[in-house]
Amino acid sequence: MSRKHARPWLYVPLALMAVFYLAPVYVMITTGLKGFDEISLKNMWVLPSSGIHFDNFTAAFEKLAPYLWNSFNMVLPAAVLSSILGSLNGFVLAKWKFRGADVVFPLILFGMFIPYQSVLIPLVEFMKQTGLYGGLPGLMLTHVIYGLPITTLTFRNYFASVPKEMVEAARMDGAGLLATYGYIFLPIAVPSFVVAIIWQFTAAWNDFLFAVVLTNPANWPITVALNNMAGSQIIAWNVQMAGSLLAALPTLVVYIFLGRYFLRGLMAGALKG
Amino acid sequence: MRIKKDTLYSFLLVLPSLAAVAIFVYGFIGWTLRVSLSQWTGLLPDYTWVGLQNFVNLFQDPRFFIDIRNTVIFTLVFISGSLIIGMGTAVLLDQNIRAEGFFRSVYLFPMAISFIVTGVVWRWLMNPAMGSRMSGLNLLFSSLGLDFLVNQWHTTPVWGIAAIALPAVWQMSGYTMALYLAGLRAIPDELREAARVDGASEVQIFSNIVFPLLRPVTLSAMVILGHISLKVFDLIVAVAGKQIPLDVPAIYMWQTTFDGYFFGRGAAIGIFLLISVAVLIVPYLVFSLRGEVEL
């Protein structure tokens, strides 16, 4: 690079913006670490002064643990299933097109953008009639299906960049559809699987609308339980803050360690490849 | 014919997904449309045809008027805030900054959290209590001597919804930054170098070369943010619960359908939302997919 490093004053606005993004996290963490005796809304911005306590986290965890577990149980299979189906769709729509494949793809994609309010009433009716209403399997199925557009897009874009000579060479060698997918496309698709799975994990973990409409209180995932906790007058704000951090932690950990893949999922969502 | 048979298999391979999308997206939209044209009120389905009555009622409903007004205010504040912050931070980060990766990660992390978490935290930051009970951002402003910034947040009459756009900007401006940064990185350095050689100032380079080239990014960002804004739901619920002054169509639909059993009206709101989003998204989809090249 011929360009020299930036002038120092540029770091002032950059740092101020970092403060803007981190301030809520600061409040969440410091509140979570204060003892119950130190908690008052007046002290919100002050650092803990009488040592580090985990009272708030313990209290929040006791209340939220079953719901965190519900979320994990529902979100992990949903993310994996949706990604496997998405990889098959992406492969066929990019490299083994049937007649009409180019019409089908945008129709699938549109499903990614619809306001779910436009399918909610039939979805509830469907779940009631199939006996899935109220439980986690129904919610999981919902996330698998409505996750298909973005996983299909992720894999299709990736497979579209594979030269079609690869498919032709495989055909010459006598490989059929499944062999081409299994021996050539599946092994090179590992990064796309990471992108699709963490993206689906994040989306399903963070969902509130489907969860609040489709599950009964015993099966609430964490978002519904947290919102319910926040709406209650009995549970103090400090426990709510600690609970928020617990609810955010799994997706934050994924972001911190796999941020690069997370960003690629984001870009795919804007149809930017 | 080997190839023909394989093409049939390829169709069978995606058939389960296609059927799922056909039923759960398009079939259910059709079903919702049918409900929106019915008088269904109460727990038991009632498909008695009432034509567009639910839609007519909706547009004469004062609550729906508040919803539309709130959506417009929210959209304007949310989109302009995200675009300004997103473009500003992207341009700054593009200046060959040390620790660029660190800043980028910090700006983008709110995207990984749910609107519910954001809402629960911001409801305490935007606590509207005044005087001795002051807390959150108001307390911070006041102790920094910035008393003119102390305000009622989302409890402000009419404009309260604009305060809800603040956490939304907090959450989505980093994403907008990422879109702009990708756009900036796609502009060849030669263009800027050539302008520098011709004696253009950095400001001139930005306003005459970079800014116009970023127009497609701005358009995509507006479409993406706009459709999020039309669907805004959980953030408001987490900050303020279900209050009429902060109502939006998505909350009205949820409440009237599942608390009030006005299924016909709820379906009409769902269809209204779908049409608003489609007007924005369909041209965008067509345009984005048209430019694709076959490898």
UniProtKB/TrEMBL annotation, chain A:
It is found in: Cell membrane; Membrane. It is a multi-pass membrane protein. Its main location: membrane. The keyword Transport applies. GO terms for cellular component: plasma membrane. Residues 68-258 form the ABC transmembrane type-1 domain. This is Carbohydrate ABC transporter membrane protein 2, CUT1 family. It comes from Levilinea saccharolytica. The lineage of its organism: Bacteria, Bacillati, Chloroflexota, Anaerolineae, Anaerolineales.
TrEMBL record, chain B:
The lineage of its organism: Bacteria, Bacillati, Chloroflexota, Anaerolineae, Anaerolineales. Coiled coil: none annotated. It comes from Levilinea saccharolytica. Residues 68-286 form the ABC transmembrane type-1 domain. CDD domains: TM_PBP2. The chain crosses the membrane at residues 7-29, 72-93, 105-125, 158-182, 261-287. It is found in: Cell membrane. Keywords: Cell membrane, Membrane, Transmembrane, Transmembrane helix, Transport. GO terms for biological process: transmembrane transport. This is Carbohydrate ABC transporter membrane protein 1, CUT1 family. InterPro entries: ABC_transporter_permease (IPR051393), MetI-like (IPR000515), MetI-like_sf (IPR035906). Belongs to the binding-protein-dependent transport system permease family. It holds the Pfam family BPD_transp_1. The keyword Transferase does not apply.
